């Protein structure tokens, strides 16, 4: 009985018992990123909320992928099988994960503008390369989930259109 009581007290008072197991992510959060293509030379503007729930300020990163790694990331066979509820081996998952990693990461600096963070950035448009933007809002304090958002490939955004207008057209 004493051991059971100790176990319950330990569980109730441990911070791990209240921690977030899965970060916030998905289309709801992806829509928080607003990107506008400013010209055909790779200039973009971006706007994201300063905070999501009780988060820290966002970290915004430009990710560069080879065509092959972007294809694995967005439409790989393991991803498809998992979406269909099929199982995969650790080896299959690890191989696709390693193959879908970006080749470069560059932090984008933003400025506060009211409740938003805004900025502009330049991308070198190249054949065989895709760029996306990843936004990460860290949890402001223990046990609250962090939030991740991802854009579509910047190469898919039409001139003088926002990311949202392009998603609606797809």
Summarize it.
This protein is α+β, with helices and mostly antiparallel strands. It contains 6 helices and 8 strands; from the N terminus they run ααβββαααβββββα. The chain has a domain at about 25-65 and about 105-165: Sandwich (Immunoglobulin-like).
* Proportion in β-strands: 25-35%
What assembly state would you assign to the polypeptide chains in this entry? Answer: single chain
- The CATH class of the domain at 24-64 and 104-163, by name, is Mainly Beta
| CATH-level-2 architecture of the domain at 24-64 and 104-163 | Sandwich
Structural class: alpha+beta
What is the share of helical residues?
25-40%
State the end-to-end distance.
Answer: 61 Å
The tally of helices reads 6
Global geometry? flat
Compute the number of strand runs: 8
The whole-angstrom Rg is 20 Å
Give the topology string: H per helix, E per strand: HHEEEHHHEEEEEH
Overall pLDDT confidence:
86
CATH topology of the domain at 24-64 and 104-163: Immunoglobulin-like
Uncertain spans: none
Strand order of the largest sheet: 1-2-6-5
* Main pleated-sheet profile: 4 strands, antiparallel
